[in-house]
Amino acid sequence: MRKSLIDYSEENPSRKGLCDCLTPRSRDIILSPMQYPNTIAAETHKLLSFMKNATEQQTQPMCLLIHSKRKTILSYKFPYFGPSKPCESSAEKVAILLYLLRCILVKSKLGEKSTIRDIFYLNVELFRKQQVVSDWLRIIQEAFELPSRDCLQIVAAQKGLCHTPVALICDNSHLNENNTTLIPYMKQNCDVSTDWTKIKRVIVLEKDAIFNKLIRTRKVTFDTLVVSGKGYPDFLTRLFLNRLMNSAPSSVLFEIFVDSDPYGIDIATKYTCNLDNRFYECPRLRYRGVFIHELLANSVNITGLQLLPLTLRDAVYARNLLKKLATKNLENWNTTHFTRELQRQLFFCKKAEMNTVANCTFEDYFLERKNKLGRAGN
């Protein structure tokens, strides 16, 4: 005969004792580091089996423990139990984790890759936002201590663009000369093979509109590899530049051109500095403009580069970015040129955008900068 609540109360007169007695025995399931990345399918299958057995066979609640990169442990109970106030999102987070682990298992067994966008649209009601998929994949990667999120067989959609004057072989992908292509998927340790004697510089452009205009200028593209991350760069674009940097001889110049506003400077830092993974940084990149002081002084006769007032939001963003650039964490990178440009923007309360409007001649600006490497910003 099963005990009633009165029986438990008589056996445990204290509140703590009664709570401990009524708390069910749970099964701890830990997402721990993997010794080898190629065991993802086996380890994921084991985790899902433990969870299935706990809920279906033993009818035990489970407690998921996830180790994060910051040495903290995320804990989620399902079904929720305990004296504390129930967490409404706990079941939802467990559902997201189980769904993604299941997707990782299936893709690993089949040897297929899916994009984050594809996974999101498989269950929009569960994820609600595409960023949720990205965040949870990062959590899983950190828990398993994998070298790259790509090991999970779920990758970001291709975003960056590349135009090369000569054919490139990048991992298993072949990029044809004088063609614009999406930056291909690649491994972190791959090499980029090409005839480097025909490439004098690699330039990165913030905006794809400027990219599309510039690649039509033969004076620019005959010896220049042009890349655009279309705004804030994705991991694949940053990895591509890193592999170019490691494969290219020291004679090849790496340059970046962004809007002269705080967001453009922030984009440039995303390319050059990365505190978490060295494969996603390109310290050889040199900031070449556009420079706000040149436009104010009209030292370059360029039309179409519009001067705009710096808003309060822009100023706050610039100050926060200056604080970030001043931290000791970035002392290994040369951030002087970024700091100087931000200070000038704040001083003049102006910003400049490279808009593709009528009469815009950014290619002239680029060619003039190309001939004046001794000017500010080098």
TrEMBL record:
* Residue stretches making up the Spo11/DNA topoisomerase VI subunit A N-terminal domain: 93-154
Q: Which cofactor does it need?
A: Mg(2+)
Q: GO molecular function terms here?
A: ATP binding; DNA binding; DNA topoisomerase type II (double strand cut, ATP-hydrolyzing) activity; metal ion binding
Q: Cite the EC number.
A: 5.6.2.2
Topoisomerase 6 subunit A/Spo11 TOPRIM domain residues are 202-363
At the top level of its lineage, which domain of life is listed? Eukaryota
For this protein, what reaction is catalysed? ATP-dependent breakage, passage and rejoining of double-stranded DNA
Pfam families linked? TOP6A-Spo11_Toprim, TP6A_N
Q: Which GO terms describe its cellular component?
A: nuclear chromosome
Q: Name one GO biological process term.
A: reciprocal meiotic recombination
EC supergroup of this enzyme: isomerase
Membrane-spanning residues where? none
Asked whether the keyword Transcription is assigned, the reply is no
Q: Which UniProt keywords apply?
A: DNA-binding, Isomerase, Magnesium, Metal-binding, Topoisomerase
Q: InterPro entries under this entry?
A: Spo11/TopoVI_A, Spo11/TopoVI_A_N, Spo11/TopoVI_A_sf, TOPRIM_Topo6A/Spo11, WH-like_DNA-bd_sf
Q: Which PANTHER family match?
A: MEIOTIC RECOMBINATION PROTEIN SPO11
What's the family? Answer: Belongs to the TOP6A family.
| Protein name (database record) | DNA topoisomerase (ATP-hydrolyzing)
Instruction: Please give the organism.
Output: Lachancea fermentati
